[in-house]
Amino acid sequence: MACITRLPQPVSEVWDWQLRGACRSMSSEVFFHPEQERGRARARRQERAKQICRQCPVMAECREHALAVEEPFGIWGGLDEQERRAILASRRRAAAAADNPPAGRAAA
């Protein structure tokens, strides 16, 4: 489950981007896998969702939202669950490296 404490405050300016999403009038089944979906069927559905995202005017906002709240399911901003986890892990490693520079070097 996504951690709601990381969600932005309920201010319309923060959420207005969602009104312009290409997915707005589509079934959530395009972006979230049904139980037992595996293999080629899942890959095809994910690719279809990512194609929609690539043409979306708010893809960047959607992606950053999903990363900020660590959304655990579905396609958000053109990224699937594994892609988001990889980006978050990379960001954490970079932050840890910045906080702990190698001996003999000061942090910038």
UniProtKB/TrEMBL annotation:
The Fe-S cluster can be nitrosylated by nitric oxide (NO). Belongs to the WhiB family. Coiled coil: none annotated. Binds 1 [4Fe-4S] cluster per subunit. Following nitrosylation of the [4Fe-4S] cluster binds 1 [4Fe-8(NO)] cluster per subunit. The keyword Iron-sulfur applies. One of its GO terms (molecular function) is dinitrosyl-iron complex binding. Its main location: cytoplasm. Keywords: 4Fe-4S, Cytoplasm, Disulfide bond, DNA-binding, Iron, Iron-sulfur, Metal-binding, Transcription, Transcription regulation. InterPro entries: 4FE4S_WBL, Whib. [4Fe-4S] cluster binds at C23, C53, C56, C62. GO terms for cellular component: cytoplasm. Residues 22-86 form the 4Fe-4S Wbl-type domain. PROSITE patterns: 4FE4S_WBL. Acts as a transcriptional regulator. Probably redox-responsive. The apo- but not holo-form probably binds DNA. The gene is whiB. This is Transcriptional regulator WhiB. Its cofactor is [4Fe-4S] cluster. GO terms for biological process: cell redox homeostasis; negative regulation of DNA-templated transcription. It comes from Goodfellowiella coeruleoviolacea. The keyword Coiled coil does not apply. It is found in: Cytoplasm.
